[in-house]
Every structure is written in structure tokens, then in C-alpha cells.
């Protein structure tokens, strides 16, 4: 209880000396916030007694993040008409990032014609923020002459996801 001893709190950045926030309330509850964290690393909390006061305390830490990942820079290779004699896979590529928590998973979904395949396929991590999915020749060969449509779902490390608009690939 506050009446037994007034405890206060300070929150420090990764260097342990840059003060991010402090709380010196006169109730039984203290609260601090770091705002948007853009770098990884430890943050430090100091609990101390006002004018040397002493008391027992319990602590609850909550981390909130409500921004979805960003999806951009769509590309399909090859980008032009593909023929049944072509032996390459069709590569769908995209850039995904979430500077606050990072990307956990990226999924791809595609269709030829009217109906979407109900499956989200796990993408592969390329370099940097690039993720891709290769549609095998075996899959696209049955759809030569039909236009490929695809989209992406990116999931960040706190399970918030976002879906892209539909991208048109080669016919």
C-alpha cells in the first residue's frame, strides 16, 4: 500500500542511462511507457522509494503493438506472357516490413480464372525485406492463357496481419 511507503518508477533506454519515462504518483499504481520502440535490446526499470521509503511491490508488464506490417514492391517473374514450352517457375516477390516487431511469416495465395485456391502458401525469405513464392511449372502449365492473380498476407511477431491488394501476373 502507498501509505506504507511511496514507491516510484523510472524507465531507461537500452544504454541504461537515457530516461524514457518516469512515474512519481501518489497512489498505489505507477505506470511508464516507452512509446514506439524502433530498436531491439533491453529496457531498464528502476523502482525506488520516495525520500528513501521502502515497500513491497508487484509488477505487470504489457507490450502493445497495433500496427500491421507494410507490404510493397510487388513483382512477378516472368512478367510477360508465359508459354507452355517455358520450363521456369513463376516467381511472385514482395517487400514486407514491420519496423516495430519484425516479420514472422509471409504467405502467398494465387488463382487462375475465377476461384481462389483456399490455401495460403508459406513464402520464402529472400534478401533484406524480400519474400517470394514460386509457382511451379506443373501448377501453371494447366492454366496457360489464363491470367495469374495473386496476393500476400504478412504477419508480424505479435500476430497482427495484413493482406495485400490483388496483383496481376503473366497470362
Spell out the blueprint of helices and strands.
Layout (H helix, E strand, L loop, with lengths): L6 E6 L6 E5 L20 E6 L20 E8 L12 E8 L5 E10 L8 E2 L1 E2 L4 E6 L1 H4 L7 E9 L4 E3 L3 E2 L3
Antiparallel strand pairs: 1-2, 1-3, 4-5, 5-9, 6-7, 6-10, 8-9, 10-11, 10-12
How many β-strand stretches?
A: 12
Count of helical stretches: 1
Helix-strand pattern, N to C?
EEEEEEEEEHEEE
The span between the termini is 70 Å
Q: How would the global form be characterised?
A: rod-shaped
Radius of gyration, rounded?
Answer: 25 Å
Features:
171 residues, mainly beta, 12 strands, 2% helix
Molecular structure report:
By secondary structure, the chain is an all-beta fold. The chain has one helix spanning 137-140; strands spanning 7-12, 19-23, 44-49, 70-77, 90-97, 103-112, 121-122, 124-125, 130-135, 148-156, 161-163, 167-168. Strands 6, 7, 10, 11 and 12 form a 5-stranded antiparallel β-sheet that branches. Strands 4-5-9-8 form a 4-stranded antiparallel β-sheet. It has a 3-stranded antiparallel β-sheet with strand order 2-1-3, with no helix packed on it. Strand 10 (148-156) and strand 11 (161-163) form a beta hairpin. The mean pLDDT is 87.
Amino acid at each position: 500500500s502507498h501509505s506504507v511507503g511511496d514507491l516510484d518508477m523510472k524507465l531507461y533506454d537500452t544504454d541504461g542511462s537515457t530516461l524514457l519515462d518516469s512515474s512519481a504518483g501518489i497512489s498505489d499504481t505507477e505506470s511508464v511507457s516507452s512509446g514506439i520502440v524502433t530498436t531491439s535490446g533491453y529496457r531498464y526499470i528502476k523502482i525506488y522509494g520516495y525520500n528513501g521509503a521502502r515497500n513491497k511491490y508487484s509488477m505487470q508488464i504489457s507490450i502493445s503493438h497495433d500496427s500491421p506490417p507494410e507490404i510493397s514492391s510487388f513483382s512477378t517473374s516472368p512478367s510477360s506472357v508465359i508459354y507452355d514450352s517455358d520450363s521456369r517457375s513463376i516467381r511472385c516477390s514482395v517487400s514486407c516490413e514491420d519496423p516495430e516487431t519484425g516479420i514472422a511469416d509471409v504467405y502467398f495465395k494465387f488463382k487462375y480464372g475465377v476461384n481462389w485456391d483456399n490455401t495460403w502458401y508459406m513464402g520464402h525469405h529472400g534478401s533484406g525485406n524480400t519474400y517470394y513464392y514460386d509457382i511451379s511449372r506443373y501448377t501453371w502449365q494447366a492454366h496457360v492463357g489464363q491470367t495469374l492473380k495473386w496476393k500476400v498476407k504478412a504477419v508480424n511477431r505479435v500476430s497482427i496481419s495484413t493482406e495485400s491488394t490483388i496483383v496481376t501476373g503473366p497470362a
